[in-house]
Amino acid sequence: MDRLTIGYVSKAQGVKGEVKISPLTDSCDRYKNLKKVFIDGKEFAVKNARVLPNGIFMTLEGVDDRNAAELLRNKELQIDRKDAVALPKDRYFIVDVVGCDVFADGNKLGRLKDVLQYGAADVYVIATPKGDAMIPAIDRVIKSVDIENKKITFDFLAWQDLAVYED
To answer: Could you give the strand order of the β-sheet that contains 122-128, starting from the edge strand earlier in sequence?
Structure first.
């Protein structure tokens, strides 16, 4: 089954088995509607999910005390892809763009190996023959994304202007 990581368990919360989740998603409200999640491949029914200003807290079926919750610390929280939120046009899951070949003017520049999320725009890290290059994932740079064929096409002039190579 195809799964997406949407966060990780950051710690046990209280003594009744609740866990605090560190989200890896743009929409924290999505946690309120989850019926099941997977941790280390094991399925857990979601009994309760609360989204508060200080974090996301979940109660999972079978996690009934602090010790059981503590065993989940630092583990990825995953969902089935079919349960993922619908993305707006021209938005993609990171897992879908990593590994795409990157082209400009018909020439292969390299392969997208990571997406950094630091500020106003994501930064794509591209493995190239000259070393890793970083470039903002903005409209000026990206001409097209073809997830099915694992291909991203960049504007060549934008690549020349904005790509920064690691030393």
So the answer is: 142-146, 151-154, 101-104, 107-117, 122-128, 131-136, 164-165
